[in-house]
Amino acid sequence: MKLYEQVATELGSRIEQGFYRCGDRLPSIRALSREHGVSVATVQEAYRLLEDQGLAQPKPKSGYYVRLRPATPQLPEISRPAQRPLEVSHWEHVLDLLCSGETPGVLSLGRGMPDITATTLKPLQRALSEGKRGDSLRGFAYDSLQGSPELRQQVARLSIDAGCKLHPDDIVITTGCQEALSASIRAVTQPGDVVAVDSPSFFGSMQAIKAFGLKAMEIPTDPVNGISLEALELALEQWPIRAIQVTPTCNNPLGYTMPETRKRQLVSLAQRFDVAIIEDDIYGDLSFQFPRPRSIKSFDIDDRVLLCSSFSKVLAPGLRVGWAAPGRYRDQVMHMKYVGTAASSTLPQLAVAEFIEKGGYERHLRRMRAQYLDGRDQMIAAVERYFPAGTRISYPQGGFLLWVELPGDIDTLQLNDRLQPNGIRIGPGVLFSASGKYRNCMRLNFSDKPSAAQDRALQQVGIEVQQMLQEIDRVA
Amino acid sequence: MKLYEQVATELGSRIEQGFYRCGDRLPSIRALSREHGVSVATVQEAYRLLEDQGLAQPKPKSGYYVRLRPATPQLPEISRPAQRPLEVSHWEHVLDLLCSGETPGVLSLGRGMPDITATTLKPLQRALSEGKRGDSLRGFAYDSLQGSPELRQQVARLSIDAGCKLHPDDIVITTGCQEALSASIRAVTQPGDVVAVDSPSFFGSMQAIKAFGLKAMEIPTDPVNGISLEALELALEQWPIRAIQVTPTCNNPLGYTMPETRKRQLVSLAQRFDVAIIEDDIYGDLSFQFPRPRSIKSFDIDDRVLLCSSFSKVLAPGLRVGWAAPGRYRDQVMHMKYVGTAASSTLPQLAVAEFIEKGGYERHLRRMRAQYLDGRDQMIAAVERYFPAGTRISYPQGGFLLWVELPGDIDTLQLNDRLQPNGIRIGPGVLFSASGKYRNCMRLNFSDKPSAAQDRALQQVGIEVQQMLQEIDRVA
């Protein structure tokens, strides 16, 4: 453990033990430097670590304070999806959500769109516009089917943070995480097979399950611990499941991060039943915990985990630069990538590789983690303020997505229709189920810097929900 | 008909009738201007048209001459593939071909790579590096699932040249033609279905057929007229064929363009049996005929043709900008695109749209057509010079690919192995068959400007083929 980590650990445990309370001013940098006999720079580094961990927050010209952490909100209960494999439906609602972001003047609260306006992305823009100096024609040529070697090297390096030891040759660059997921799903299944998924689950992978003639077996999922291993085990005994598709770190839409022990147990379970695990780690680097949690892939001892990710949520989705580390299924994933797109666009790959190499990725990540942590707390506070009693809210451990479960029989598809005149769109819960569950739920996005406009929009959603509740009461 | 077209038509028919012979000097611009009573500019325009049609060629400071056209080479015979639906094989050889372009120092004669070094592509490079002025963040955001409106508008405009009347809303932008093809194939089939293909056929679409659990029914194909409609009709009667996948204009690998009457008949046949047509038009704009031949889509009266194309062969494959006009199957293709990649990379789309809008596409196309026409004739001459008697060669009507059929029992996979020490790779014929036919064939690429190095390489291939023939004779 480095010196600054020691200082941070000691200060952190004092905060955890209540020695300093929420909102308290923490010791000055100079005081701590004297107390521990370390340099000012070391203390500064320690405070930055505490900031990353969400324990301390700086106030301009005043020093560091213990971060005001809201109490954990009232969480949703463990989900109870259908107990048999199902065909995935609701494509028309997915399409509607995807298109909602394209209408000018509409505040699309449901989309999985990061904030792309941060100044820490400027070097990436420069890298894109400069191309690869002295090699300007390379962007015109087919890239290697596996993806540019420079980028694969950087991805391998970054994956160390998630506890992985990947070689650049283990990695296949894809057109966004969606291609990584769909190529992985197709690589390990045949039409008619069943894929077990966490529930609620990302609609993109579920639509791939639908498109390939597969069925989804939704597994009960806990908003703190993730997919129920007990229910999964029963399902594996009962159905011809070929793969388990989960988003275990900063889950979409529930926001939890599975504890490490459960990640390990999931790998054991997959080994016992000899099935593949498709791990969606797209929000993993945006964890509010620092260093970030380990991926399931890091516990993968017999190469059965297909790790899927992309730069869409940390950097910018318009680049369409994603990647897979498909373990023993690498050749099949390459075949599916060839069949699907032949190669990924060359220029964005080279620009991202350059941006990471020059340290831009880590700088940008640090900034966005802080912004999203703040956004989470503010949005939770707003939902608690404006939404009716009995509303349950997720407590995201990273990323920028909030899951809200409304009381009563409120249908969020209807809610969305009613919000249309106000220019507000939310992400209806049905999209996250194979079978139309979660009608009373919605996904919200807190990636934008908190603003009065967003607060007003949440207030408006709250008013509409209250009205719908009253109408339901009147009928009943 | 415009004035310059009248002049060109008259002069063209004199050439066709033998009034002027190959290599003859044509009348001077001034003489023609006097003869027809038209302006010098009109005659210049007429000569440019004749140049586009491959009838005349300018010589610096000397005027226009009748283009030296080689006699049609000895063409391959009509193909005779297996008479039943088959699973597609040979992925490992496709992969080998794809990777061959990545090894430095290897002359990859088999790849479908255009010349990307032309100065007429410079404005496209500029458009890429400038991004969209004043809207620099747009490249970071998700593009519309259907593709950028600017680009769809330009694609609709260009498609008029192929006789189509498409609205921008009819078009779906894809990650290269490969995504257009695979999304189209998947949109109109279910696992277990049969797809009829021309034969030899593009390996990319055949690998998609394989990946989706379909079977390919290879139809005998004539090197002048294209897919045999008679054999196709028999196959449609006999097998559960759901779609016909063809490359009717500047075919890959055979180079023919189906006559218009046969294109019409193909549409009628598809109507009678109620099947979809997936038309690969990726080389269509590179036709040596001017104006370019009509696409099958232009005869499509009940929206059953899924037209697939891209800018990979005319501009640059590294952009990965393709498109589909899927007719009545548009929504299914959109779903497959969402499942496969969610959206295409934003920046390359905007750059291509700007390049077309400013006239860069037409300028570049004119130049490349002339270069590839010259390349074709030189490569045919080299193959006739260096390859053994009995070699048959295609006579490409556009694009930059040559198909060569060797005499005797020569296996071009073996030939490729033997050429490896010389740093030369050809495209083995087996890739173009579902079932390992065309072992004695190869595909060659004449997109690069003719060079001494390429001539030497072709000579080397010829020597190797001669040696293999002698070895076979010795054994027999």
UniProtKB/TrEMBL annotation, chains A, B:
Q: Which UniProt keywords apply?
A: Aminotransferase, DNA-binding, Pyridoxal phosphate, Transcription, Transcription regulation, Transferase
Record Pfam families: Aminotran_1_2, GntR
Q: What's the source species for this entry?
A: Marinobacterium aestuarii
Q: Which InterPro entries match?
A: Aminotransferase_I/II_large, HTH_trans_reg/aminotransferase, PyrdxlP-dep_Trfase, PyrdxlP-dep_Trfase_major, PyrdxlP-dep_Trfase_small, Tscrpt_reg_HTH_GntR, WH-like_DNA-bd_sf, WH_DNA-bd_sf
Molecular function terms in GO for this entry?
DNA binding; DNA-binding transcription factor activity; pyridoxal phosphate binding; transaminase activity
State the source organism's domain of life.
Bacteria
The residue ranges of the HTH gntR-type domain are: 1-69
Report what the protein is called: GntR family transcriptional regulator
Question: Record's Gene3D superfamilies?
Answer: Aspartate Aminotransferase, domain 1 (3.90.1150.10), Type I PLP-dependent aspartate aminotransferase-like (Major domain) (3.40.640.10), Winged helix-like DNA-binding domain superfamily/Winged helix DNA-binding domain (1.10.10.10)
Identify its protein family.
In the C-terminal section; belongs to the class-I pyridoxal-phosphate-dependent aminotransferase family.
